[in-house]
Design a protein that fits this description.
2 helices, 29% strand, single chain, five-stranded mixed β-sheet, alpha+beta, 159 residues
Length: 159
């Protein structure tokens, strides 16, 4: 290969490595996924008010962007894309943290209920049942009571 060809190949390799980036998404399901509504998923950051419409939680979603995908826009898009696949209408209480080569976003994926202010109840959660009442604590044995030890400089103090 000619020196010019080697230089061009090295330049293409450097450009392809410099433009590397990818995103990962993770989900903690709270309820079964819902049918998709086909519209864009709304994003409400943690310091914004949640939607006035009633909604129920479906999952906690997380997106991590690496390299060129370590931008707020990229992780927000990955977060809402993942929420859309679960049938969510919005991601609420979302937070985005950006570092030098990694960005992180997380929020709660929700589905709207009906059109009015009080829609029908959502599906039941799929979380494990509550463990029940805690057992009573074991009986406590009496603790030794402290007493004042006499000091060599004050021998009558403890009497």
């Amino acid at each position: 290969m000619s020196p010019r060809g080697k230089l061009a190949a090295a330049g293409l390799l450097a450009l392809s490595v410099a433009a590397c980036g990818h995103s990962e998404t993770h989900v903690a399901m709270l309820r079964a996924p819902q049918p998709s509504t086909g519209h864009a998923v709304e994003l409400y950051l943690a310091d914004q008010a949640t939607p006035a419409r009633p909604f129920f939680d479906i999952a906690i979603v997380q997106a991590i962007g690496f390299g060129t995908d370590a931008t707020p826009e990229a992780v927000a898009r990955a977060l809402t894309d993942k929420a859309g696949t679960l049938g969510c209408d919005a991601v609420v209480r979302a937070s985005i943290d950006v570092g030098y080569s990694r960005a992180h976003a997380a929020g709660v994926c929700v589905k709207y209920l009906g059109d009015g202010p009080h829609g029908p109840a959502g599906p039941p959660p799929v979380l494990p049942p509550a463990p029940g009442k805690n057992p009573p604590p074991p009986p406590m044995r009496p603790a030794p009571s402290p007493r004042i030890e006499p000091l060599p400089s004050a021998p009558n103090l403890g009497r």
